[in-house]
Specification:
The structure is a single chain. Helices cover 39% and strands 20% of the residues. The chain is an alpha/beta fold. The protein folds into two domains: 5-254 and 458-475, Aldehyde Dehydrogenase, Chain A, domain 1; 259-446, Aldehyde Dehydrogenase, Chain A, domain 2. The strands form six sheets. It has a seven-stranded mixed beta sheet with strand order 15-16-17-14-13-19-20. It has a six-stranded mixed beta sheet with strand order 10-9-8-11-12-22, with helices on both faces. A three-stranded mixed beta sheet has the order 1-5-4, with no helix packed on it. The N and C termini lie far apart (84 Å). It catalyses: an aldehyde + NAD(+) + H2O = a carboxylate + NADH + 2 H(+). Residues 16-477 form the Aldehyde dehydrogenase domain.
Length: 485
């Protein structure tokens, strides 16, 4: 049995302190169903302490008053510390959420390091002040930190979603109370150690593992100036409603039901590996997953056959094995959610092309076969609702206008891709899709560019200059006009 990683203190305002209560969170491995970690469960009293420390540090401490170069120096040390410990970070994430280790190294740990790096570059190139010529006289435009930030992050890609909030918040001069998911608190403790070693001043960062009740208390706190959240649409709506009471600023990165369009002239051999990667990365537990694949009627049978073969060949198993492509679902509840949707799809009349059940020989762990439905109508629940697992819909379309219509016929608008005979043709399609990020003849996610969604996929952007600006308030200072000669 794996030794239990146990933490007894909370990181509040840069110090390791005793929690207010005695409740704990048990971290259970989705691969072994064994308890692998235990941390304190933050209580509302801990939230009050953390927010008070952040408020004091923002209102009176050195962090917001440092020069950008001074903050850059400290955040660079955080980035370097995460790089030094990236393998440990990846293994912790895999232990907690079952993410395949190859994905955890590349897309969990190293992507977080890259996000810190690109945000550092943005901060270095963005002046805190600039002068403009106004209609009535000169203007001084200042960019100032928004204040105390509550960052609430999910379990599926914990460190990347943390980096998308923490890096710009810190570099802008904000103070942060981080609330990681109760499924993945251990990697947040490692991050706290890195930040402590980097020399963050007192009060700038707190880390509070907790459930939804404590999260609700945090986001509604009157001394919080901004909430940055990644998670479900339902939770995002609740956060937005709570934030409205105090006019708290929000950035919400929510769900997706992204469509991949294969045009008639697409190179299927080039597209298929990318489609499979885009659909099943992180065992399908990704908001950007390509869960709807749109195939032209003229090539539908060919695409269905090749895609079925590719999906059925994916290796399911131990997430610590570098050869594994599909690890377990994060919880038994999440696997049952997927199984329920598979039953719904069959009841709706979709054709199960491969998968649909629990893999043979994997009785321990919350494993699920990678599943592909064919003959899916876009109005079916399996095509409209986010399942968050390895369940994919293959949808037939008649012409390009029909493909664009189907891709846009969704309450979500987070990501997507198109495969065309030429890049120019693909870009033409990309311009017609209502989604926040899109790929043409490739499947990419780049932390240098803004990321976020249209419609129910969220509000605001993370990463890039746009993500940095979300942690700043803009002030206009009117200057006296120069005296005339």
């Amino acid at each position: 049995m794996t030794d239990i990683l146990e933490r007894r203190t909370l990181f509040i305002g840069g110090r390791w302190v005793e929690p207010a209560g005695r409740d704990t969170i048990e971290v259970v491995s989705p691969a072994t169903e064994q308890v692998v970690g235990r941390v304190p469960h933050a209580a509302p009293e801990d939230v009050d302490r953390a927010v008070a420390a952040a408020r004091e540090a923002f209102d009176h401490g050195p962090w917001p008053r440092m020069t950008p170069a001074e903050r850059i120096e400290i955040v660079t040390r955080i980035k370097d510390g995460l790089l030094d410990r990236h393998q440990e970070l990846a293994e912790l994430i895999t232990l907690q959420n079952g993410s395949p280790i190859t994905f955890s190294v590349r897309a969990q740990a190293l992507s977080a390091v890259a996000a810190f790096g690109t945000t550092l570059a943005v901060a270095a190139g963005l002046p805190a002040e600039e002068e403009r010529t106004g209609l009535t006289g000169p203007l001084l435009i200042r960019r100032e930190p928004v204040g105390v930030v509550a960052a609430v992050t999910p379990w599926n890609v914990p460190q990347l979603t943390i980096a998308g909030k923490l890096a710009p918040a810190l570099l802008a001069g904000c103070t942060v109370v981080l609330k990681p998911s109760p499924e993945t608190p251990l990697d947040a403790y490692l991050l706290a150690e890195v930040c402590e070693a980097a020399g963050l001043p007192e009060g700038v960062l707190s880390v509070l593992p907790a459930d939804r009740e404590t999260s609700a208390y945090l986001v509604a706190h009157p001394d919080v100036d901004k909430v940055a959240f990644t998670g479900s649409v339902g939770a995002g709506k609740q956060i937005m409603a709570a934030a409205a009471q105090n006019l708290t600023r929000v950035t919400l990165e929510l769900g997706g039901k992204s469509a991949a369009i294969l045009l008639e002239d697409a190179d299927l051999d080039a597209a298929l590996p990318n489609l499979v990667m885009g659909a099943f990365a992180n065992s399908g537990q990704a908001c950007v997953a390509l869960t709807r694949i749109l195939a032209p009627a003229s090539r539908y049978d060919e695409i269905a056959a090749k895609l079925t073969a590719a999906v059925s060949s994916l290796k399911v198993g131990d997430p610590s094995d570098p050869a594994t492509m599909i690890g377990p679902m994060v919880t038994e509840r999440q696997r049952q959610r997927n199984l329920d949707y598979i039953a719904i799809g069959q009841a709706e009349g979709a054709k199960l092309l491969t998968g649909g059940g629990i893999p043979e020989g994997l009785d321990t762990g919350w494993y699920l076969e990678p599943t592909l439905f064919g003959d899916v109508d876009n109005g079916m629940r399996i095509a409209q609702e986010e399942i968050f697992g390895p369940v994919i819909c293959l949808i037939r379309y008649e012409d390009e206008a029909d493909a664009v219509r189907i891709a846009n016929d969704s309450p979500y608008g987070l990501a997507g891709t198109v495969w065309a005979g030429t890049d120019e043709h693909g870009i033409e399609i990309a311009r017609q899709i209502r989604t926040g990020t899109y790929s043409v003849n490739c499947q990419r996610f780049d932390v240098a560019g803004p990321f976020g969604g249209f419609k129910n996929s969220g509000i605001g952007r993370e990463f890039g200059p746009e993500g940095f600006a979300a942690y700043q308030e803009t002030k206009t200072v009117h200057l006296p006009a120069p005296a005339r000669a």
